[in-house]
Every structure is written in C-alpha cells, then in structure tokens.
TrEMBL record, chain A:
Species of the source: Chromohalobacter beijerinckii
Subcellular location: Membrane
Domain Histidine kinase, residue spans: 246-458
UniProt keyword annotation of Acetylation present: no
The protein, known as: histidine kinase
Keyword terms, alphabetized: Kinase, Membrane, Phosphoprotein, Transferase, Transmembrane, Transmembrane helix, Two-component regulatory system
Record carries keyword Phosphoprotein: yes
Organism placement in taxonomy: Bacteria, Pseudomonadati, Pseudomonadota, Gammaproteobacteria, Oceanospirillales
Molecular-function annotations in GO: protein histidine kinase activity
Short name of one Pfam family: HATPase_c
Main localization (coarse): membrane
Domain of life (superkingdom): Bacteria
PROSITE patterns: HAMP, HIS_KIN
Automatic annotation (TrEMBL), chain B:
Listed name of the protein: ABC transporter substrate-binding protein
Pfam families: SBP_bac_11
Keyword Chaperone annotated: no
Cleavable signal peptide: 1-26
Top-level taxon in the UniProt lineage: Bacteria
Species of the source: Chromohalobacter beijerinckii
Amino acid sequence: MSPTVNSPSLYRRLLIWLLVPMLALGTLMLVQAYFASRDTADRAFDRLLESASLSIAEQVKRQQGQLWMDLPPAALKMLASNAEERVFYALYDAHDNFISGNAELPPIDDGQGSMRFTNIQWHDMSLRLGVRHSQLEGWRDRQPFEVRVAHTREGREALTQTLFQGSMLRLIAMAMLAIGVVLLGVRMALMPLTQLRRAIRARDPRTLAPLDLTLPRELAELRETLNDLLARMRRVRANQERFIGDASHQLRTPLAGLSARAELALRQDDPRAWHDALGVMRGSADKTARLASQLLSLTRLNNPESMPEARDIDLCDIARQAVRDALSSCHRAGIDLGVETPPHAVIQLAVQWQLAEALANLIDNASRYGASRITVRVGEAPTRLEVEDDGPGIPEAQRLLVLRPFHRGMEGGQGSGLGLAIVDGIARAHAARLTLVPARPNAEPPGLRVRLHFPEESTS
Amino acid sequence: MTAPYRSLACWVLALAGMLLSAMSRADDAHVLRYAAPHEATAQPLEIYGALDNDLMAPLLADFHARYPDIELTYRNLTTLTLYRRFLAEDEASADVVMSSAMPWQYQLANRGHAQALTTSAARQWPQASRWRHELFGFTFEPVVIVYRRDALEGATPPDSHEALLRLLTHERQRLTGRVVTYDPWRSGAGYTYATEDAHMSPRYWELVAALGGVKAALADTTGEMLDGLADGRYAVGYNLLGSYARDFVADHPQLEMVIPSDYALVTQRLVLIPNRAPHPETAERFVDYLLSRQGQQVIRDKTPLGAVHTALEGEGTARDLRKTLGDALHPIAIDPSLLATLDTLKRHSLLERWQREYTRLSDNGP
C-alpha cells in the first residue's frame, strides 16, 4: 500500500480547493446575474407602465361633475411589446370607485411616490401592476384619482432571458479562462516540487551529500530539513563505520592472541604446557565470546527497526535476579555485592532482557574497575535503578566519553569498552535518563553511582 | 342574396344594443348540423359564430367532407349573444367562437379566455392577422365607397377620402340627402370605423362636417345602404363593408365600388378556441382547417369574405389587395388599441365630437 493511493496528489488537492470554491462562486454569480437581469427587465418594462399611465392620466379631466377621460389607444399599445402581452387598465376615483377600464385592478397600498409597482396574481395570470396617483390640474378642482395599468410578464421574461443569457455567456467565458489560468498556475507553482523530486531521484543512493538546489522558500525549508536528515545520516554512518572498525579491531586482537598462543603451545612437547595454553585460550575465547555477545546486543539496541515488546515488570525482581547471577563471580573476586529494594514491587513498563543486560554490564564494569563493594538499588518517585560502587569513579571530563563504544575509562583495564555504551543505548530505548555521579563526592576514592531515571508518565 | 346583409345586420344591431343597453333582440339562432355517418365514432364539434349560415355553409360542408367523423353543429348567434353567452359561467362553452366584432373578441382573448393553437398553419399565419396564437383573423374585408355612376355625372368620382371631401363640399347642393353612411351610435361597425378614421387623420372631422353639410342619411347596415343605392335614393355610400358590396355591385351595373386609394380600412373576422372548450381536439382541427390553404381556398372561391393566406391569389384576397393598394391598405390592427374602442368614456367622447362636427355646418349653414 503506497501512500499515493490513499491521499490525493498535491496537484489534485490544489485543483479541488481552487476549482470547487470557484464553481460555487460562479453558481452564486449566475444566480445573482439572473436576479439582476430580472431587475433590469422589470425596470425597463416599468417605464412602459409609467409612460402609459402618464399618457392616460393626462387625458383625465372633469366633465359634467365626474371624472372623464379620452383613452388614448397609443397608451394601451405602449403596454404591449413584441411579446404581445395581455394589457389591462382602469381609472379609479379618490374613493376607489371604478370609473372606466377593461378590468377591475386592485390598488397598491404600500409604497412611496406617485407611481407604484407590484407583481400580482390576478385571475390565474401573473401581472405587473403599476398604479399612478394623480390629480386633476384645474383652477378650482384638484380631485385626486388613480390610473392603474397592468400587463402580463412575457416581455419581461423574454428580456430577462436575453440579458441572462448574455451574462451567462460572459460568465462561462470568464470561468473557462479562470480554469485555464488555475490549471497553468498550479502546474507552474508545483514545478519546483517536480524539480526537487527529480533531483532526489537522480542522486546516487550511496551519497549523503547535501542537496544543492535553488527552490522557493516553502520548499527551501523542506530542502534544509532534508539536508539536516542527510547530515544526521552521515554522522550515523560515520559512527557505524567507526564502530565496525573498532569492533573488528577488538575481535581481531583476542583472535590473534589465541592464534599466537596456540602456535607457541604447538612448538612444545610438554602436555602440561599444552594444558596451560588451553586454559589461557579458553579464558581468551570466553572473553571474545562475551565481546561478540556485547557487540550483538549493542547492534540490536541501535537497530531502529527492532521494536521489542515492553511489558509491565517489577524492577525489584530484575535487580535481585541480576545480583543472583553475578553473586558467584563477585564472591570469587572478593567483592561485596548487595541489593536494596523497597518492600513492595516497583512496576515499570520496560523490556526485561534489556534491563537485565544493563544491570549485568554495570555490575561487571564496577567489578572490573576495582570496586570492593557494589550495591544495586531500586528507588521510587521517581522510579529508578542504581548501581553504586566504591571504585575510583570517573572524572567529570570523561563522563560523556565513556558512553561511546570502545572507550575505556582506564587504560589497560580488562573491559571491552562496550558496557556503558550498551547501558546508554538501553536507557535511550526506555526514554530513561542516565546519570553518572560520584557515590561519595568528598571521599577518596569517590566511587560511582550510575542511575537510570525512568520517565514519570511511562509508569502509569 | 339577402343572407349576408342579414348576418351583418345581426351583429351590427347586437353591438348597438349592447352599447346603448336599449335594444334587445331575441336569440334567433340558426343551427346547421352535419351528422357523422357512424354514431359510435362521432366526435362532436360545436361552433358559435356571428356569420350567417349561407356564408358558413360552403366552409362547413368542405370541412365535413374532409373529416366526416366530426359531428358538426354550427350555431349562428348575434355578436352580443355570443359575447354574453361566452362570459356566462353556467352556459356550456362552444368549441370554436368566430365573430366580426374585433374589439370584443380581442377583449375575450386578452382576458385569457382563449387557448393557444400551435399547429404549423397557425405558426405560419401572418403576424398582422393574429395575436399570440390565440386569436386569428381569417378573412380580409376592406371598407369601401360605393356610388351611382348616373348621379355623379360630370363630377370627379370619389376614389379617396380627399376626393370624397372635395365632392361633398363642391356638390353640396346636388348631394344633399343623397349620401349615406353608418350611424356610429347605433352600429358597432360604424363606431369602429369612425374610431379608426379619426385615428388615421384629423381631417376626418372635416369629412364628418361635410357629411353633416349634405345631411347624410345614417344607416345601420351595409345591406340597407346598398339597397338605398340600388333603388336610387342615395348617390354615394361611405364606409360600406367591401365583402358584401363586391358581389352586389357586380349585379348592379349602375353602381361603382371604390376602395379609397389614400387609405382603406380592412376589417377581419376573428376566431378563437375558448379555454373551456369541451372538445379542444376537434376545435383545433377546425381552426387549423380554417387557416389552412384548403380552408382559405374555399373562403376565396365560395364566399366574398377574402382569403388571408399568403399563398393565395385572386380577387378579394389579402395578397391581391396588398398588391393593388400597397401602403394605403390599413387593416384594423389586432392589438390593445382595440380595447380603447370598448372604453365607455372614450365612446362618449368620440360620439360627442362626431355629433358636434356633424351638426357644425347645418347649424351655421343657410
């Protein structure tokens, strides 16, 4: 399952985020254009209602005590466009009495001004009604009256359609142009990404040299991150190379010793000498085997791919077991090995074999570097494991260096130089903090206390 | 030969009756029936028309011959009865309504009482002779001047409104009492023509004054005027319906018919299919036939009504008249100005003016 299957490409994502809102906006604009067209058509045709009603109103006069008009046929013609609308007109007096007309049209009560417009539904027809308030222009008589004119909406709809189609065509043309620009723009904007991809793909898989490529700011950050990663990988590789060199050197020395010893023994005829040689060779072989197993554990610890299962374990058990394991060898060397644990279990999420390995290494280290008393201790709040000895300790300046593989705290010591490096690796695997402090700072020798602080949250 | 005049009289009287609300006329509807041969498959079609049976018969017969399955009933009503019956909600509606009363037909269609017809014949119908595909003018009848040759010897024949005005002014003595025209009060057609005439030119009022000057007789129908001209009572008749006058003049050699050359009004009979038509399919077939080349051919060949169809030529057709008269031809427009004709106040104004002009010369004259 490749990640490209699950998440859409950046190109598509950009297109979707640009085009979908654009489409929504376009739809909105179309709706707006329709309403604007209808408004314009209504305004244009309302002018017809206005002028028709005006030319009717001008013909209204008073005759024989009542309202009178000589209806101009042109006024009615004016109300109909090419769409052949149905037209209606009526003259009403001030008291809303029908005077003359071809339809009894309703008044418009709300609105301002002398000319008012509204849409009405009248006898199953939708009409646009215009009502003109006017009054007689006489010397004495200024009687008000209303001219109401109405027509059906065919002409308005036709004009709306025409206007809307025009707007729609323009909008579509603009949308096409915008889509083209967006497609081009996105392609152009993503070009550096393609360059970066090509540059990475074209690299020799063995080189870890930094990328040298001129990129836009956003991608330059990515390039810097990538270069940082490459730098770290370079360092890791250098470490590994040195480690491999050191390891092979370390393995070669005892093996060469073994070989030399065997040769020496072979030149002699005395079986006793052979026996002695074999004894020495067995010791050498044990040491080499131990070195090899330490190298193996260090490799396992350093392998980021291996994810050992962590479980809740009791640190007291671990401590007691480690002391039991080391007891006989310490006893032989005359070292006082002890354990201090709380009366109850101290539970910690950890990998059992790693902690056992760490303790074994620390006890071994202490015994090799001249301690006469070693105490393994389990503490709480914060949860910790300690190994304390009364040996010579490690000077302040050496404390970080001793964590590196094959560094020996003391020249000519018997250790492999891997013990503390392994402990450090284990501490890191558990996100625990490793501290090296003198056990008794003011005494001589100061001794050494190696402590593993486990993080608080992982206890829960 | 009197049938056309009776029909005309019917609607003219009806209009007059309605406008004055004074005259009432019994509904003496004549009915024409064409039965379908097979009762079972018969599709009914009911037509109400203000056209006389004699005029309708050739059309209906031809239609029936083409569609024998349609059981046809034609009811000849006056325009007034037609209009009232149409608006009466409880009356069963006709399938097709035909009338020469243009304003009233227009009023019905304008109120949305007509349904649209969109057959190919209807779509191709000339724009000037239809309104919204709801109202179709299917005849073309000019309004004419008829005079007696013997009575006008030595004078210029009145071949235009201008010439008529000159004639009436110059020969006032000789023509007094011998001129006849429509009575605009009593005749709806006369009123419609007066409206259109007044609209065409303000000089119409001079003509009305001149008509008053010769004490022109006022008649209700074209038939009445033609009869008076034939028996010598009148020398000149103004604003006669050309479709009737044409045949009559052909039979009376002493009469001469002229279509005014300055402008000639043309009236059309309008047909519509009501919304409430119980049999819209047969109604559509009939109106489609009326507007088809075949139907128009029958109108041209067997009636004096004048065919409108653009493809038809021959005497009395719209195409022929347009060719001879050109711009002078002035068909009464099927547009909202017809509604103005129906306005009661407008009518009063116009008739008052007419009365004033008509009596102007006689009051001041010798």
